[in-house]
Amino acid sequence: ERRREFELNLEKAGLELETEHKKAHSRGRKFFVASLFVFNTLIVRLIVLDRDPPVVKSDIAAHFILKPFKLPEEVKNPLPDYFTAPFSKEKQELFLINNEDTFFLPSTRNRIVFYILSRCQYATEEGKRKFGIKRLLNNGTYTAAYPLHDCQYWKKAADTNCENERYTLYIEWAKFSRFYKEQPLDLIRKYYGEKIGIYFAWLGFYTKMLFFAAVVGLVCFLYGYFTEDDATWSEEICDSRIGGKIIMCPLCDQRCSYWKLNTTCESSKKSHLFDNVATLFFAIFMGIWVTLFLEFWKRRQARLEYDWDLVDFEEEQQQLQLRPEYEVKCSYRKKNPITQEEEPYMPVSSKFARSCLSGATVIFWIALIVASIIAVIVYRLSVYAAFASIIKDTQGLKSVGSLFTPQMATSVTASCLNFVVIMILNFMYERVAIWITDMEIPKTHLEYENRLTMKMFLFQFVNYYSSCFYVAFFKGKFVGHPSKYTYMFGRWRNEECDPGGCLIELTTQLLIIMGGKQIWGNIQEALVPWMMNWWGSRKARHHPASLYSRWEQDNDLQYFGQLGLFYEYLEMVIQFGFITLFVASFPLAPLLALANNILEIRVDAWKFTTQFRRPVAAKAHSIGIWQEILNGVAILSVVTNAFIVAFTSDMIPRLVYYYAYSSTSEPSMAGYINNSLSIFELSKFSTRSKPDENPDWFSESLYTTCRYRDYRYPPGHEREYSHTMQFWHILAAKMAFIIIMEHVVFVVKFFVAWMIPDIPADVKARIKRERYLTQRILHDYELSKLKEKLYRQAECPQTAREVQATTEKIQISQNSIY
């Protein structure tokens, strides 16, 4: 009954319907109903959906692109470029409607038909109207609703009347062998709509900009690699006469024993790959790069707005259309002061209650993430003692490789565990975020997407980056000293960093989480849809076309979903955070992101063209709220990288030693390691901290002191174990460095942003020219109509004089515009 009423109302709304009964389908009986557009119906919807039809062909030339990267002209520019104007049914003959079948882009037809489907009524119960295809899908009246793909993707259609955009996109865009070619953005926009077109334009531009960051990052990494043997501090650690004679204090209570400094030789050498002078340069470079990326994207976006006739499009106007869910669930009504029409609304008390519940839920889940991070930290503290007891002496350490230190083993296993926890929490919170956003009942689609975006990004930010913030800014900073260690919850002793610093552990953490996320994301995006489609169509895919029609094949594909594009943006923005917030610790991060994104573009293209039903087209002139999120991450990245260089890296302590505390007549790094380690008397170890067992080479009669990483006065000094002046000098240098670096980078960022206009000058000129020509055409059209009316009414002098006066006024107005 619901179907009958709904389909009857669709026909009244101007759609034509066709029904097919799949009698021979091997998996049961199914009915397919096709909603076909009618030209006059779509014309009526033009004003509602804000689409400007073409008036005259454009006379502006296209951009130049190098031939190896260029696509065939028919693929790159599938439609001629036109100047457009706001549609008016009274002036319909003015617009270039040469062919009613091709006047509307496929994405526009798609969008208008779905607009009708989503607002068509199917029942009235208890005085309430029930409408919309979404509710009919939720209550099982229909099983699916989707636009049809154009033909097959692997071959051209035999019917010459069938468009082949899907096949063209598959051949020229989705194949990985075309990774070096430009994307057919105009064809993507024509087939999928502006919103998906903007996403791929942004992803492609982001990937191009990553190339420059990747090259600079690779150069910085190679600098560290080729200067690895020039690091004096690493040589001192590895030297058996220096590092081999320095006895270090135990790194955990009881189960850890004394150890020699040269056991960390390899890890200290490897840390130089990332902890060198180039680190500072790269951190500053990335602060400027991110500004250039965002500013140049605004310019690229302005070009797309013009090319795709979105200059006068306000997303808010489109999104002011109420969500059907809002109209259904809001029983109260009031008059809109603008439209003077009755419309549904939600009382303030209900909004407040829902917002409080939503906020409490978000806080609870963020607290859950923090609890999981604390649990991983406790794991690090407890498992470290286990690794330290396994690797007790230098010989045992060398037997498994000198890179396998207790610190490294703990860091790697904790990072893997943290990645698993992140994936589990992501899976759970995605559903919670959608539930609480639905519960808030946002008024418009734009409001719904913005609220969900902020919730998901806030959660993902805390989930993905918390462990990196811990390693970068907390690990090794609150350890205490041997006579007074700091304990977490009074039980677990806080972690210490290697004598070479914690930067290499931050690099390991970043590599595992970022790399693991990208590998898992590509598997999830490509393999899972393919397997589900293969399984779902296993019984019918070998049937002839008469038994397995194109609409049935599309029905067996995966549903992209209203939030499908949201997850694509979220994945890339999280990656953007990794390569900007912590890039000072891992210069190769942009290179990994570049390789991933080259693959990501083609995987997404393949997925759209082959594995998913055709999404409902949507119009958008920008990436929306993601732009503000990217700006916020860019500003925060300057702060985080300054703190990483100052507090996580050992660069500042080395510079202070080189210029102020070097023991030689000329500034030198010789003696830095001995200077950076404090002394502790073994007899003052408490029972809780003293090792249960000593290594074979250790003799209490020979060794009476051990060393630890800090700047404190030695035993016997009047200020025993308190911080030395060198500690305060280093701290002052770190704070001064942070302030100087932040101000320098921010000044350069804002200067660059001020220097680069958001809209290119040639685009501004094109916009003005288009407005000038369209205004001129419209004025000429009005004048011709008035003249015709004048000639027709020449027999009535009074009317003729009035028409003549009006014509003169329009001519004067037209001349002033010219």
From TrEMBL:
The species this protein was found in: Latimeria chalumnae (Coelacanth)
Gene Ontology CC entries for this record: plasma membrane
Coiled-coil boundaries: none
Name used for this protein in its record: Anoctamin
Alphabetized GO MF terms: chloride channel activity; protein dimerization activity
Domain of life: Eukaryota
Lineage of the organism: Eukaryota, Metazoa, Chordata, Craniata, Vertebrata
Sequence similarity: Belongs to the anoctamin family.
Location of the protein in the cell: Cell membrane; Membrane
Keyword set includes Protein transport: no
